[in-house]
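Render this sequence as a predicted structure.
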Amino acid sequence: MVYEAWIGVVNMSVTAGLVIVCVLLARLALKRAPKVFSYVLWAAVLFRLLCPVSVGAGFSLLGLTGTPVREAAGYTTRVEYVQPAPLPAAGTGTQAPAGQGGQTAAAPSGEAEGIQPSVSARLSAGEIAARVWLAGVLAMAGWGVGSYLRVRRRVVGAVRLEGNLYLADHIPTPFVMGVFRPRIYLPAGLGPEEREYVVRHERCHIRALDPAFRLLAFAALCIHWFNPLVWLAFFLSGKDMEMRCDEAVVRQLGEGSRADYSACLLALAAGRRMLAGAPLAFGEGDTRGRIQNLARWRRPRRWAALLAAVVCIAVVGACAANPGGEESPPAEETLSAQPPAETQSPEGGGEDSPGVQALADSLAGVETGETPLSLTLTQDGEELGPYEQSWTASNSVYYWNQLLHITWRA
């Protein structure tokens, strides 16, 4: 179970890595645009990190890289760069590949001794990697929960000012905490002007549902902790989020407020350690970069904002979709693996039954290609059910991996 989940995560992580590179390039092109557009681009990355399937489209970015896709369910497909290694057969020997006649038989003892070590070594490496990945996920999640609980203890005695505003004595910087009912915590000693800037900034986070987005981003980081591009995306998306809120506050108060707002940001960030577990803190992120961004900020022209929005939508759509969009024509030939009635097994199966051998004989001469292949499994004129349920446990994984390149239809 863990091994299959690990393979799925690897496929998603590779896909997300390609999308992250594309977002970084688009982010450079939108460098002078409002940061709201750069921030929206990260939605495609988050989708790829958390969702294993997507719809097919002719304008997919992954279509340029020859990304292998597989039908999932309905109109969705999934990317498969890596497939699970075939498991050894149940019993004493390793399941031998189909021979010239397509039959599957246990290899002789001499061959089994030669094959078994390589298969076992490959599977052991995969299983070890899966367990290391799971340990990393649990460690990251444990650190996040522990940090959150430490922050909760520091605001136990917070005093409510109004609405969702709370005043606390033992916090170094303002921050938002909570997803469903987010609260804004302010440190004691803030002046009236500083409080206005901070409250506007944090309420911008709440209106944009940033607490929920940040929680999902951290969950994706826990799952894909082994991918350095995901760490880069996590930190850059946080910077874009903070800069977007900075620009929103200055747009509300007027461009004349940039100097005072920058001074407030610098005063609250200088010499103060950030709170781990409080992801939406006013002074978090690259303070110097945020101040420089405010110094360059100008209210964009309408045509420039419209062009940036079109680019943003096109990039997100192309990164979120899988290659496809046009159904391949059905194969003219339907392979029927029904054995003669007099040779069928009354029980309907078994790895040495005539039905399985007849199916293996029929598949042995099939040449693979781009044309989808329909497979019909019947016994005594009745369907046996989905393909993966028509094999015994000892040989199903081997044949499934051998036939993954074929598009199966129910």
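Summary. DSSP finds eleven helices and 13 strands in the chain. Residues 109-154 form the longest helix (46 residues).
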